[in-house]
C-alpha cells in the first residue's frame, strides 16, 4: 500500500499526501478510491475530532488504504518515510507569505524523489495585504519550489464550484 497524506481546507495537513480539507473527505477519497494510506493533519484538535467522527461513521470498502488523522504543525512534522503524494488545497494561502519559502523546503523534505505535490491555487483574487487567505498566484509556488520540483501541470479547471469559477488553478509538481 502506498503512503499518502492529505490536508484539509482549514489548516488541515496530510503527510503522505498533504491536503487541507476541513472534514477530511479528501483523505477518505485517497484511501478508498485510490487505495492510498492517507493521513490528514491539522493544527486544530477540533478539525481532527470532526474528521475522526466522520471516519467512524463510514464503511470503507475492503482492500482500500487506511485513512487516519492527526493534530500536528506542518512546519514541525517529522516522518519516518517520505510521502508519494501531498495534496495542498488551501494551506499555502493560509500561511503568511514570509513563511512560503519554509513551506517549499518542508514540502521538499516530505515528498520522496519522483513523488508529487498537487496544489489547488485558490483564491486567485486581486492583490491584497490582508489575509488569510493571502494573495496568491501559481508563480508564488514556482518561486519556492524551484530546484526541488518540476511543474508537470498548470491548468485552469473546466468545471468548478460557482464560487471558484475563474478564481482557481490546479498545479502539479514532481519531486526531482
Amino acid at each position: 500500500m502506498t503512503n499518502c497524506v492529505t490536508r484539509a481546507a482549514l489548516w488541515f495537513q496530510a503527510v503522505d499526501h498533504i491536503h487541507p480539507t476541513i472534514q477530511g473527505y479528501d483523505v477518505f477519497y485517497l484511501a478508498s478510491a485510490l487505495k492510498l494510506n492517507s493521513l490528514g493533519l491539522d493544527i486544530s484538535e477540533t478539525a481532527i475530532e470532526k474528521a475522526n467522527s466522520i471516519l467512524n461513521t463510514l464503511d470503507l470498502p475492503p482492500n482500500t488504504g487506511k485513512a487516519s488523522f492527526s493534530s500536528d504543525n506542518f512546519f514541525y512534522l517529522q516522518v519516518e518515510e517520505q510521502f508519494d503524494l501531498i495534496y495542498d488545497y488551501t494551506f499555502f494561502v493560509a500561511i503568511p507569505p514570509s513563511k512560503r519559502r519554509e513551506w517549499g523546503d518542508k514540502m521538499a523534505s516530505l515528498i520522496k524523489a519522483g513523488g508529487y505535490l498537487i496544489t489547488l491555487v485558490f483564491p486567485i483574487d486581486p492583490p491584497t495585504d490582508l489575509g488569510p487567505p493571502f494573495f496568491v498566484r501559481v508563480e508564488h509556488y514556482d518561486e519556492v519550489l524551484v530546484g526541488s520540483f518540476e511543474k508537470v501541470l498548470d491548468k485552469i479547471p473546466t468545471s468548478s464550484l460557482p464560487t471558484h469559477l475563474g478564481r482557481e488553478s490546479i498545479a502539479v509538481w514532481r519531486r526531482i
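The chain has a mean pLDDT of 83. The chain has five helices and eight strands.
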